[in-house]
Amino acid sequence: MNSSVSKGSAWAILALGAALTSTALGPTASAAAPRDAGGGTATVTTARQQACPVVYFDLGETLVHTADDGSITYRPGAAAYLRALRARGIPVGLITNVPSSWGSTDAERAARLRQEVDSTWEGSAPFAWQDFGDRVLTPRTEAERKPAPALWQRAKAGSGHCRVVYQAETTEEVSVAASLGFVPYQVGRPHRPAFLPVGVVELLGRRAPA
Length: 210
What we know:
Blueprint: H1 3-21, E1 53-57, E2 64-66, E3 72-74, H2 78-87, E4 92-95, H3 106-119, E5 136-137, H4 150-158, E6 163-168, H5 171-179, E7 183-186, H6 198-204
Helix pairs in contact: 1-5, 1-6
Protein name: Secreted protein
Signal peptide: 1-24
Keywords: Signal
C-alpha cells in the first residue's frame, strides 16, 4: 500500500482508539460553506478558527451500490452513517466521476447525476442529496476525472482551514487523497468499521490540519 495511505491509516487507527476511550465529545465546529455553482471555492470559517472536519466520499460502491439489474441502493450502513454525521453537524460532500458533457457547472452535472441515480433507485428511503448541498464535485473536463488530482484539490481549497476526510472503496483513490493532505479511509475492508467512525471524525476536527 502507498506509504501516505499507511501513515494516514495508522493515524486513523490511533484516533479510533482515542475515540473508544473518550467518554465525552464536545460540539462539532460549524459546517463548511457551499461551493458556488461554477466550481469556485468558498472559505470555511469557525468562531475560534478550529480545525472543523469535512467528510468527502466517492459515490459508487462507497455510499451506493449498483446491482446487476441496474438498480441503485445504499451500501450497508451508509444511510445510518450519513444520518450520524448530519446529527453532529458535520458537512459532507461527494467527489465523483461523471461525464463532463453532463453540464457546464458542478450544479448542472450534479443535477444530472441526481436524475440518473433517482431514476433507478430501489431503496426504501431516497438518497440524502440534501446533506451534500453544493459540495458535489464532478469533472469539468475529461482530464479532471479521478484519479487525476483536480477534484480533490478543489475540495481541499473549498474547505478552508478544515481538516478534510476522504472515504472510498479503492486503494488508488485513497492513495491520491492522502498524498494531497486528506485523511484517507478505505471502506469495505474486512475487520474494520464500514466507515471511519463518527467519533474519530469529531476528534480529527480538534486537531490542526497538517
